[in-house]
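User: I've been going back and forth on whether these two constructs are worth ordering. Before I decide, could you fold them both?

Assistant: Sure. I'll take them in the order you sent them. The first construct and its structure tokens:
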Amino acid sequence: MTVDAQRRPRFADPGFWLGSLRVEGRALMAPMVGYNEAPLRRICRRFGSALAVTEMIKPEKLLRDDPQLLRGLCFGPDERPLGAQLALREPSLLVPAAERVVEFGFDFVDLNLGCPLKKECRRGWGAALLREPERAQALISAVVEAVPCPVSVKVRAGYELGERQGAEVARRAVDAGAALVCVHGRTKMGWYREPNDPAAIRDVVRAVEGRVPVVGNGDVVSLESAVALFAETGCDAVMIGRGAVGNPWLFRRIDLYLRSGEVLPEPAFDEVRALYREHLDQLEEAFGARRGFSQGKRYAYYYFGRFGLDNRTRARIAGARRRAELEDVLDALAGA
């Protein structure tokens, strides 16, 4: 697939403002449960993601000073601007949690009104709030009034297949003081099986009427799909989740193309392998050799999937118990 130069967005400004916070680019990493630890955030920022966000933080754990959670909230200057994502439906807990993450030094607070997980929705969190727009607006307003930093909001197109509450909730979010809205073009019940719907994102763009930036999310896995989402929705930026895991070069390719029209080539095997080794090193430093290696093995499928991993190679990666065994697998892949 080639990039259609006629569809290239022409932004007068290569970045945008998230309230008072300057964001120097229009390709952003998405918060992903189980993935957004500090090593991945640092790598994505270095490769062009204009900001980073933690995975969803459970306020009740934060407020009781859960040691594992607090360790996960440590970050360095190379991750900034960095937001902390929260999800809850009770302002009596959500507001103090937002105030707490500000004390930790996060640059903005991101409120999750889009999480599709059954466990969270049963508690009335995440995407469940799409069906309660008045409560959602009150929650957002309470957090905006309580913290000195910008507040962003993440929504989905709707709850059930065919429902489209996202635009109304986005409009209410901006009325409540949100400085940015990100919308995933799928419904909660559509999970990741439903095709991403650019029209649902376009509806949010129209609903907020240019008052704040709107970020489009869903199925951005390449430069071509990013350009298409800009063209079909009129969004101000794109947010990339699974498409950037093991492929942080995607941020750099999108950013350069938006600025100059230049298309960077895809990385070669040796470049991918070097970054993967660095990622493994950082994971082992952060979590210890055993847990870091286990976490790092699953990233191997993302980094090297572009080189055609057959079932035998996948099985060898899964079965590797030490770095040396994993390196042997990569040696064989390099020579294939």
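The second construct, handled the same way:
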Amino acid sequence: MTKQKFLKHMILFAFIPLVLSIGMAPAMSFGNIFGSPKKQMDDGVPTEDVLCRAGLDLMLRPSGDVACVMPTSSDRLTSLGWETLAEGAPMLAELMVDEKTIEIDGLTVSYKEGGSPDSPTILLLHGFPTSSHMFRNLIPALEDEFHLVAPDYIGYGKSSMPSVDEFEYTFDNQADIVDKFTEELGLSEYSIYVMDYGAPVGFRLFDEHPERIQAIIVQNGNAYEEGLEEFWDDWKVWWNDKTDENEKKLHYLVAPDTTKWQYTFGMRNPNSIDPSTWITDQAGLDRPGNVAIQLAMAYDYQTNLPLYPQWQEQFREHQPPMLIVWGANDYIFPEAGAHPYERDLDDVEKHILDTGHFALENDLDFIAEKISNFLNSRLQ
């Protein structure tokens, strides 16, 4: 077979799935098979021809917007006034996660975004030592139903990385940048997904603007001293006695083996974890000046503990609905940190998962479905 004939065959085989998808919705043009359900309707696609991902149900919200939802959500949403338009709607082509930047206080904040801004917003707040990269799969899994925004903190991911002499790396300052970021994007109401370092960032936003936070999703992030166990012993020694010797005990935090360990320890099948996770994170840690940034953040973590009672009081007063999806085998934030939330909140749905620190790497589909069910039943 000549090279030219081979290329023709390849083009033909690539084209067949597209033809089949159009055959399921003949009224649609090529351009209309892409985009969120709302975008398709805004582009003039008839409701009966709107596409979801394979296996999802197309439903009409009481507000008049449409959304693609997990079939397991349909019965409950119907009882809340939603209308099923199509069960097992034809497959929508993969939506792209947008990579964007915005300037805040002279610094560039990089962020990932997916879904329609007209849908309920989820602010995704990453942990250490990662970035918005940890949400690379969650955003496409939920963007049919929600507007998802995942910023990189200053010094992380693709955001600006000023030196420790140019920027004070504290949780107060990181939260202040994220707060201004939400305002620049016009996010007046949103849910927060908090994990690891994302918890003290997100809970500062909740403490400052409780009226803006519609719901909280917690994945291995503390607001109680329960769960700050053996892993934190060397941190506490350093906090109480800031010597070079005590600091050196924490240099392992930025080592390649530690970064890989964070992704593989406690996982059901460590060999199944995508190596791009720790490779991407380590590339960030290896940048000149980033070790000093990570040590500054680690030292400032102590400022979170005195705020725990204040955050807990805010939980009791404002009662945000909370979904907990917690990796039980996490050595950094073990399961003990998941349970105290129930002392202060009336509406808590809790799932303890047989996985480690980065639970999304093992249980993406489960967590995405629980988020879909939880938020769709609360955000009416």
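Notes on the second construct follow. The chain has two domains: 18-86, 98-378. The CA atoms of residues 169 and 297 lie 6 Å apart.
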